[in-house]
Amino acid sequence: MIPASLKESVFEATGIKATRSTPLGGGSINNVAAVVGEKQDFVLKWNTPSLFSMFEVEAKGLDLLKKNTESFIIPEVFGMGKNDAYSWLAISKVDSAPTSHVMFTKFGESLAALHKNHNDSWGLNHDNYIGRLPQPNTSENDWLTFFRRHRIELQLKMAVDAGKMQASCFKKMEQMFAKLPEIIPDEPPSLLHGDLWSGNFIAAPDDQTALIDPAVYYGHREIEIAFTRLFGGFSSAFYDAYNSSYPLQPGFESRTDIYNLYPLLVHVNLFGGGYIGQALSVLNKF
Question: What is the pLDDT of residue 26?
Answer without folding.
Answer: 59
